[in-house]
Amino acid sequence: MSRQKETKRGKRQEHTAEGMDLRYKDGKEVAKGGILGAFIGLAIIVPGVSGSAVAIIFRLYEKLLYALGGLFRRFKESARFLLPIVLGGLVGLVVGFFGVRALLNLLPFAIVALFAGLMLGAFPAVTDEIKGEKPTPVRILLFLLGLAFPLGLSALSIFGTPDMLSLEELSWYHYILFLLVGYAIAITQLVPGLSATALLMTFGCFTPLMNSVSLTYWRENPMVLLVYVCLVVGFVLGLLTVSNGLSRLLEKKRAPAFYTIAGLSLGSIVTMFFNPEIMEVYESWTLNAAMWRELGIGMALFAVGIIAAHFFVRYERNRVMKDQ
């Protein structure tokens, strides 16, 4: 039997065996969990960044789904696995809001280009999951649909021109809507290629939520804290319920699922240069030295991101081959 077939069978056994091993092998894997969480936190801030795509790169995606879906069934093991990811997510959210957002205000195109380069350079890690699988017409269609979905969502957020949702003087049904929004955000974090930022922009609540994070705003409108609670509750419910469905889908229809995921992941990279925030940057550009300087920096960072991610993917491939 070839090494490729053995690898595929090993993947399937790891996924279907009861009692999946959720232990981190060493400190490096714990660090990966923290970095994965940081990208999940950043994904809520930076359009196009996909935390679950990073989970695939780190080969933690199926374990993440299993741990979330089995949190109550195997609480101790799942909690230990999820703890570094949760802590990393909190760090990523804070750093993303205060650090990356500040950098985006200074050099928006260049910073987006860096993240896009990282995602593109790591894309082969996603296609590794379908290597050796026959590209049937149905699978090709699923790939194309996956590619089109984030592009369509991004186009809707740009051209749909949704009214900005006010977070003041909300009615009771608005809080139910925010529960649903939180649930939808959870789906974007579990399905590679979907962007929480693009989703919030489509609903017209990304900018209001970003602007609401200040002590002054909280004092003037304390009920916004209930909005946060609804978002968090919906988010947690989404993680716990959707993860089970995705685990079963990967178990029964692994190849078609990853063809779709590959399309979603590639589409999300394109949307990093095609979303409401970056379109505002394009509209503000004039043919002057500042524009060409940012373009030059952006192209350089894009290349750096691709190269760095490429070497990391190669390192992960070699590590997996040694483990086998």
Automatic annotation (TrEMBL):
Keywords associated with the record: Membrane, Transmembrane, Transmembrane helix
Keyword Transmembrane helix: yes
Positions in coiled-coil regions: none
Pfam families reported for this sequence: VCA0040-like
InterPro entries: VCA0040-like (IPR007163)
Keyword Mitochondrion: no
Name under which the protein is recorded: DUF368 domain-containing protein
